Amino acid sequence: EVCTMINKKYSEFLPSMQSAEELVAQVEGLSNNIDLLKAGIENEVQRDLNVAVAEFTELKQQLERDTLVLSVLRKLQEFDAAIKECSSALQEKQYVAAAQQLEKARSSLRSLESRRGFELKILKALGTELTVQTQNMIYHLGEEWQKLVVWKLPPSKGSSSLEAVVLSELHLHTVPPQDEDTAVPPVAAVLQALAVLGELHSKLKDFGHLLLQYILKPLISHPSLEPVPEEQPDVFILRFRSQELVLDESSPMEVFEKIKLVFEALHKYLLNVPLEQPGEGRKEGRVTLAELLGELIWEELSDCLIHNCLVSSIPTNSSKLEQYKEVIESTEEFEKALKKMQLLKEDTTALLKYACNVDSHFANKKCQDVIMAARNLMTSEIHNTVKITPDSSTALPELPDPGSGDHVKAPRGSSLVPSGTVSVGSESRLSPFTLCLPSCRISSSVQQLVQLAYHTLLEATASTDLCCVQLFDCVRNIFQLFYEVVPTYHRENLQKLPQLAAIHHNNCMYIAHHLLTLGHQFRYRSTSVLSNGAATFVDLVPGFRRLGMECFLAQMRVQKGEILERLSSARNFSNMDDEENYCAANKAIKQVLHQLRRLGMVWQDVLPVNVYCKAMGALLNTALAEIVTRIAALEDISAEDADRLYSLCRIMVEEGPQVFTPLLEEDENKKYQEEVPVYVQKWMTFKELMIILQANLQEIVDQWADGKGPLAEEFSAAEVKSLIRALFQNTERRAAALAKIK
User: Fold this and answer.
1) What 3 state SS string does 272-299 have?
2) Is the pLDDT at 331 greater than 60, yes or no?
């Protein structure tokens, strides 16, 4: 059984083994075939494939080269064709077609030049050819433009004087003549061709410059000039004529009408030409010549209209502001007319804005005029004076009654009086001259300056709030300008001339006097912003008083210096028995009196009486005090010395009061001459010194009266003893007298 099973298994295994062996043999055969095939591919097919790829790449590059060459040749052919067509179109005077062909040629050349790594020597030649053709074209168009627009200008080119403008003419040959052979191409063709070539801007710029210089600006600046348009079958001529007997300034309405007339004529014959302007962001690329010209000249023209026409038309008086509405309406109509002709863009309103802002311009102009007028007054001569008296009515504007109008009533006088002071009863009245400026002389220019301030503030109260504030500030500026300008501008004269120093002192006091109430007087004008009480000039008052005082005190110091210098030549009043010394002292005193008399005359009727008397008193006091000091310091005075010193002092006492002549009327001055002791502090001291020079020892002791007499009022015990020792010899009587002086 076992053997049988083995045989059975073997007989089953044998066929499968044989089939497996056959399969192995087939696989080996197949593997050999694959190896052979692989070797074949690697050796033959790969080589053929590499060759094919190389051939394909070469063919591709050749194709690219050929394509490039073909496109270059096509562009060259296009360039050549365009240049030829341009030349033929130019001969036939088809300027737009010629210009377009030129631009086509330019585009072809640009395309050729933009190819990197492909540079042909021919391109340089083509560029030169294109430049030549372009310049030729521009020259022809320029010739045509000059035939269309002919300027006939005077020989003195560049001048825009009235005589030159009257000789100027503008001829527009924009209508072709009947003769076909010499037919000028229509203006549109020439302008369109120039636009295509990019030359229109420069041509229009030149035209705009001439238009401004010889037509528009002269029409604005010369009121007598008038445009005279003339239409003929084949030409439009614009001439000018000058009218005689016209005003210095023409109104804006007249100027606008003249300029509108010129633009209407230009629009009809030249500017109403539609042009293709591609690539400029305009609607459909279309634009009229008027728009282009407007862009070039409007800014300069509007500036000229504002500065040479509208500025001068601005009223200088607020009452005329209402009439200015006519100018505003006229300006609006003028701008509308120009916009209709397409010379202006819809959003352009420079002129109208300026005209509508008339309040601000009025204020600026008024302020400028006021400051200029004020400055002229400040730099005019100080010595031209007018007399100011408490009852004189100065030429100031009538101000309204503060009780009138709808406003808050002014507080009653009693509420302003501080507690503790006695108020004036209702039946009593203050003098009408209370708080008035004393009689004196001031510069007429300063009186006019104050009048100018009043009139300007009156103008301010009738103006708009903005204008009112500006004018109020302007008035403050006037006074601040005076404070700065006058002392500097007139410095030399104020230092040298005592009369001018006195007038300047009065001027400053006069201004300060008015500044106290200047703002308050306008407070109750109900419509004004000045009514809130903030408009005041009081803060300027101390500065002006100080300015006047400092100038006058500086002059006083100069005069005192001169008095002391003259007295210094009196040789200390010593040894008067020496004739030479006496003559020197006598001369010094005469010179001082002469100086005081001269000052008394130049200040007469100029300074207020009280200031005059104080000033003359102070100067005379300086002289007397110096003489007293010098004599009191002497150590030895002989009897002859004493007599001579007395005679010198008597001259001062007799002639000193005569220098007080504050008024022109001689009789009225006596009162002030008698009051000399009031104004001269050392007057009684001087008189006591004279008594000592003539008195004996007993009289001096009596005058002293144990320190209670008049002598003791003026001199100290030491000074009296010193004088006794100088006047009297050393005796027992002198010793007794000295003992009583204590």
Assistant:
1) CCEEECCCCCCHHHEEEHHHHHHHHHHH
2) yes
278's CB contacts (< 8 A; 6+ apart) are 285
604/609 Cα distance (integer angstroms):
9
SS (H, E, C) 7-62: HHHHHHHHHHHHHHHHHHHHHHHHHHHHHHHHHHHHHHHHHHHHHHHHHHHHHHHH
**Residue 142 burial (C-beta neighbours within 10 Å; 0-12, 13-18, 19+):** middle
Pick the closest to residue 355 from 381, 376, 325, 379 (CA basis). 325
What is d(CA 137, CA 135) in angstroms, rounded to the nearest whole number? 5
CA angle 717, 722, 723 (to 5 degrees): 100
Helices (H) and strands (E) in the chain, counts: 30, 8
Of the pLDDT bands very low, low, confident and very high (cuts 50, 70, 90), residue 181 is very low
Using CA atoms, how far residue 387 sits from 107, 450, 497, in Å, is 89, 15, 20
Which comes out higher in pLDDT, residue 365 or 659? Answer: 659
- Of 339, 369, 372, 335, residue with least CA distance to 355: 335
How many other C-beta atoms lie within 10 A of the C-beta of residue 260? 15
d(CA 328, CA 309): 13
CA atoms of 97 and 90, how far apart (whole Å): 8
Would you say 514 and 442 are in contact if contact means Cβ atoms under 8 Å apart? Answer: no
Across residues 483-487, what is the average pLDDT?
93
DSSP codes joined into one string, 640-700: HHHHHHHHHHHHHHHHGGGG---SSSHHHHHHHHHTHHHH-TTHHHHHHHHHHHH--HHHH
As a residue count, the chain comes to 742
pLDDT of residue 281: 43
Q: Nearest 10 degrees: CA dihedral of 568, 571, 576, 580?
A: -110
**156-160, 399-403, 590-594: which is most confident:** 590-594
Task: Give the rounded distance of the alpha carbon of 629 from its chain centre.
Answer: 60
Give tens-digit pLDDT for 387-435: 988 776 554 555 555 544 444 333 333 333 333 444 444 445 655 666 6
CA gap 120, 103 in Å, rounded: 21
Nearest partner of 669 among 620, 601, 615, judged by Cα: 601
Question: For 185, how many CA atoms within 13 A lie in the half-sphere containing its CB?
Answer: 22
Average pLDDT rounded to a whole number, residues 161-186 = 63
The reported pLDDT for the residue numbered 555 is 95
How far apart are alpha carbons 92 and 292 in whole angstroms?
Answer: 28
Tokens of 260: 């509108």
Segments of 42-162 assigned E as strands: 149-152
DSSP string of 457-492, one letter each residue: HHHHHTS-HHHHHHHHHHHHHHHHHHHHHHHHHTHH
Residues 6+ apart with CB under 8 A from 142: 203
pLDDT tens-digit profile of 205-264?
A: 888 888 888 888 888 888 888 888 888 877 888 888 887 655 666 678 888 888 888 888
> Can you read off the two tokens belonging to residue 668?
């009225």
Per the CB < 8 A criterion, the answer to whether 628 and 653 are in contact is no
Q: Strand pairing of 274-276 and 286-288?
A: antiparallel
Q: How many CA atoms lie within 13 A of 129 on its CB side?
A: 17
